[in-house]
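Hey everyone, long-time lurker, first post.

I ran two proteins through the pipeline my lab uses and got sequence/structure pairs for each. Pasting them in order. The first:
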Amino acid sequence: MQIMIMAGTTEGVQIIAMIASLEHTHIIATTVTKEGGKLAKSAGAQEVISEALNKEAIEKIIKTKKIDLLIDATHPFAEDATRNAIKAANDTGIKYLRFERPSINFPENNLIHPISSFENIKSKVLEIIGSDNPRIFHLAGVMTLHYLTQVLNPENIVVRVLPSIYSIKKCFDLGLPSENIIAMQGIFSIDFNRALMQEYNISIMITKESGDEGGTPSKIEAALELGIPVVMVMRPLVSEINKKTVFNNVNDLLQEIINSIAYIKIK
């Protein structure tokens, strides 16, 4: 069975490893970064494609590699990737399965301010802080940093990003001073997040609802303990996924894959 997995997340790597243990499978994994591609390869993918893919590129892979099953395990905020995957699967007539990282149940608290999109960050920050110069802790990824730097003073923005040349250069290009760039990778504890917020004298935090695997709960808890307002960008809604099979548990997804393999063998 030829399986294409759009990965790039912790769960995507886990899914690859689980499928690799099955017989009669050949895994073609796609990731946006080379680092993600290395993880996919080490997990058991026989082939790896490390680049952003539009709908046409996905369709080309499906056709040339004779893909039987497309598994979308991309990040909850990679809505364009999910839309492209669904459209490509529909147009080529192959089966599509989505793994969606479970959402978190965040506490009801007046300090938590959910917003629907990154475009609303400026207005929400100014609504909370006013016209002062807040010290902002941006924990929503380097690719969304420009939503802040376009409208607020980069000198007042502290960001934690992956320790990659691309991420750090992006921060410099957007005007952040070197002392405001924290280059680290991992899921960090409440204590560590709290210490960083205290060290940098943070007055407001920006994050996104990336689930437990994204470290969202520990970020929120640290901010609440310090009385720091949290602006949380909620997950985008992808209407195209409503008619598709979605899993929030990797073991349930694996069972569906096993059933699909058995069905194809019978055919």
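...and the second, right after it:
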Amino acid sequence: MKRIIRATLAILALAIASPALAHPHVFVVVKSEILFDAQGRISGISQSWTFDDMYSSFVTTGASEDGKPVTTEKLQPLAEQNVGDLAEFSYFTIVKVPGQKIEFAKPQAISMREDEKKLVTLTFTLPLKNPVKADKAFNLQVYDPTYFVSFDFAKEGVVMKSAPSGCSLSMSQPAPLGESESKRLNEAFFSGLSPGADFGIKLASRATVACP
């Protein structure tokens, strides 16, 4: 189905994005903080996404003054609009716990900033509607199923905050692509077509939290 990218949200509005665009089109470095409440339950995910230089330049075009980083105040309307539009995509944040359905509440602590390297970082917190215990595996992934956006965790990009004693965090890397999948990805890059609506998960790392 033909889709169109909303010009003001060149990365985040994928619901109507055209598959006739090279994949991946935007690159994001992710840092995620898994939050625990006073009862030792996982209560939310704090996200920090740093965008590549091309998208960062797009966001800040015409907004900077004297070459200085754009203020967070100027970027705030865009930050709130972007996070609002992410809702229909579950914020590209996939959380799974065996036997439970996980849903997010309204995002909090939304902001956007530009650093001295001219890279833009979007931050926001996703509270869980119902906090969960991590006595069963709590799995976190951040990815775009269509691989229009490439999300990659930074080194030590997932941490726990206020975790009870004995909780552990491990990272799993995706399996190498098979020959046919690598061919699909290469063809998508050179043809400008999508490698498939399920391709992003094949390249997504996974963080797993387990508590006693």
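Reply from user beta_strand_b:
Welcome! Quick read of the second one: Confidence is low (pLDDT under 50) at residues 1-22. The helical segments are 53-60, 72-86, 179-191.
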